[in-house]
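Aim 2 progress update. The chain analyzed this quarter is reproduced below.
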Amino acid sequence: MPPGDVVDKALSARPRKWLVTGAAGFIGSHLVETLLARGQAVVGLDDFSNGHRRNLEDVRAAVSAEQWGRFRLLEADIRDAGACREASAGVELVLHQAALGSVPKSIADPLRWHSVNATGSLNVFLSARDAGVQRVVYASSSSVYGDDPELPRREARTGRPLSPYASSKAGMELDAQVMSSCYGLQAIGLRYFNVFGPRQDPEGAYAAVVPQWTFAMLAGLPTAINGDGETSRDFCYVANVVQANLLAALTPEPEAVNRVYNIGAGARTSLNELHRMLCALVQPFATAALSAPLQRELRAGDVRHSHADISLARELLGYRPEFDVRRGLELTVGWYAARRAQK
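Predicted structure tokens:
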């Protein structure tokens, strides 16, 4: 049975109450939309330090009034233990997406990254434990692999973290393991590999490369590549990540619980290849010919190559990426072009 059918069957069998932290964020808002569209009740927790109200407005426009009525937003920081307890009350399943991203920003402000990603996540875990939540699925990162040279990345082997962001995610994984072993909390971690798609913020010096380049190309602005362009990443369309979260939350298999999984497309794309694909997809929407990218120095803390071995997620969760990089880029460019045309 296709993964989407498995999820739909499980959700239609019984509505549940979910907590999505980081609900106004890029990934969080897609999770909220998918759950509401399938008749679920959702509590959203977000302090809007990274998320945007416009993302939730997009969700509201995409679902029916009845479905939107099943959503409740709590505006608060996950570092607020009381807010986490309030958000967890009566919840069966938690999808924990709230975090601070960006490797360069974490290098500039390591204490804040630790307090949000590590201490804040521990608040979420403890609140879930105290509320009797059935399971927490939490967003980890491929950054935990650090300087390990092995490709593709396999869950059992990690290297030294190369940034405070990476170490905060590694610490979160350790806390989740302790919550499981000491308190019996069911927890599943998902190590995301370079997620992209509609609603991802294209602005700012440290924006992710897909939205940043797409936005720049549509606006006729120059783009830049860090290094020689042969740095590669496992770019994963956001719908694949939504699928993984719901499969992890709903799996009935005991063997699948209290583990971490790689969630990517299972393929590598260089920055040069990515730039060529985006140029071809953006050109029909552009008003002028697109220029070659500028070259900049590699950023501190960045790894050279990243590639997910997704066999464990495929075996134990039934994860099957339904969107490859090109199809995901087509949908992403179309969304940004439509959004730009509305302005």
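Residues 3-342 form a domain with the Rossmann fold fold (CATH 3.40.50.720). The first strand starts at residue 17 and ends at 21. These observations will guide the mutagenesis experiments scheduled for the next reporting period.
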